[in-house]
Amino acid sequence: MSNPAASEQFGASLPDLIEKLLQQQGIAYQLRPASGGWPASQQIQASLLCDNVGTVLILIPKDHLLDLKTLGSLLGRELEPVRNRELQRILSKHQLNQLPGLPILFNSPCVCERSLLDQPELVLDSGLDGWSLVLNQADARTLMAKVSLAQFSVPLSSLEKSAVSAAQDDQDLSDAVQNFTALRMKQRLEETIEIPPLPETAQKVMKLRVNPDADVDDLADVVETDPSLAAQVVSWAASPYYAAPGKIRSVEDAIGRVLGFDLVINLAVGLALGKTFKLPNDAPDRATPYWEQAIYTAAVIEGLAKAMPRERRPEMGLNYLGGLLHNFGYLVLAYIFPPYFKLICRHIEANPHVQPHQIEQHLIGVTRDQIGSWLMRYWDMPDEVCTALRQQHNANYQGTDHIYPNLIYLSLALLSEQGIGSGPRLSIPDALLERLGLERESADKVVGKVLDARDALRSLVSKYQGTTRPE
Which residues form the HDOD domain (predicted)? Predict the structure, then answer.
């Protein structure tokens, strides 16, 4: 019941098991490249959930978010996503490399978002990387004949929220704290959530940053007052990533000969802040580890900035710091909302097609971007860093200091194409590249160089992880 000519045209065929099942049901289909550009409302996002009773296959449109709490209330079950290792075992048993949205493939109940069957065509993963099944409405209804239909997911359009002002971010965070913690509200938000002060070393380093007379000796003196930081700076300079000739013999040597004054100032701030919050024990399955993503992002940002026309380049050190700290709100999120952090992680796993900050907006009313930016302002960090964190997912931001968040966005988008990060791929608008004065080819070359240095970067990751340990 397939379209053989179409399949031959694209040089692909369905796994035998899936083709046999579709034929048995009399379901006609077309096999098309997954890059077909269909509306998200017609694309099926499949999730396999489980509890102690068994598994359930869930189907929703890709322009919706799966709400585990609503679904759990509907079914009277506490369902969580099947862990990746178990999912891969199930898929390999059927010789598949992705989860297809085919109820007939699983001996599990299936629940489908009702609006899907109103679409003229449905597009679902085929079980074959890079290929989709396209079904017309009649065949889709045949496929879903024994599926339970319900309304339990949330339109992503309802979660879109543009940044209004810093005061609005403060209010959103206050409301979230009041709604989701047992703390008594105090007059000042920072007292309520008991955020620690900016570390003393970071305070000293930031003073040097605004001192026009500060030199390498001044910075070395500050770094050396913190033995842990001094060791980190020296080992960083000695890492294969920088390939410095000769042995690094001192902090002064690391700063003056290898890393440079500006980089060490911002590296020291990043290391100091890294000690402030612990990595949470829980984390979304299949997400890139926190510091690995941070260092890859900073490295790509550094390369992109150097590839920009000289007159458009941002301040290099602050640019690098923005990359290191871009996801810092994730750590603070776990610190402020510990009972709800597990719920957030499970929703991220169940919604790989949705950006994590949108999931947070839905669940608690405030995002990691807002939280991270709020904390940077509370700590009196530079405005460029505050803006970078707040606007990092806004590809169209053209306001004050736009270069910093624009570069973070581009770095995240480029890395997402290589499977680094969490959430779906981010689009890269031509207008964004034009604003930065970059060609797509040169941006791709930057990412290629960073990934070529993957082993050396991992050594830097291990040094950072020594500053921030899981709880």
Answer: 195-395
- Judge contact between 391 and 435, C-beta under 8 A: no
> What are φ and ψ of residue 66, in 5° steps?
-75, 115
The domain defined by 4-157 folds into: YbaK protein (3.90.960)
Class of domain 160-194+277-465: mainly alpha
Q: Which of 229, 236, 237 is nearest to 204 (CA)?
A: 229
- Residue 213 contacts residue 258 (beta carbons within 8 Å): no
- Calpha distance 241→239 (Å, rounded): 5
Q: How many CA atoms lie within 13 A of 59 on its CB side?
A: 30
Q: How far apart are CA 200 and CA 272, in angstroms?
A: 9
Residue with tokens 């839905």: 362
The tens place of each residue's pLDDT in the chain, 471 residues long, gives: 454 434 444 456 787 888 888 999 899 999 999 887 899 999 999 999 999 999 999 999 999 999 999 999 999 999 999 999 999 998 888 888 889 889 988 888 999 999 999 999 999 988 888 889 999 999 999 999 999 999 999 999 988 776 678 888 888 887 787 776 644 433 445 555 677 788 888 888 888 888 888 888 999 998 888 888 888 888 888 888 887 788 888 899 888 888 888 888 888 888 788 778 888 989 998 889 998 999 899 999 999 999 999 999 998 888 989 999 999 999 988 988 887 899 999 999 999 999 999 999 999 888 999 999 998 998 889 999 999 999 999 999 999 999 999 999 999 999 999 999 988 999 999 999 999 999 999 999 999 999 998 888 887 777 666 554 444
Residues 6+ apart with CB under 8 A from 403: 312, 313, 314, 319, 436
Contact 297, 326 (CB under 8 A): yes
Q: In the chain, where does the domain assigned CATH 1.10.3210.10 lie?
A: 160-194+277-465
Residues 177 and 364: their CA atoms lie apart, in Å, by 9
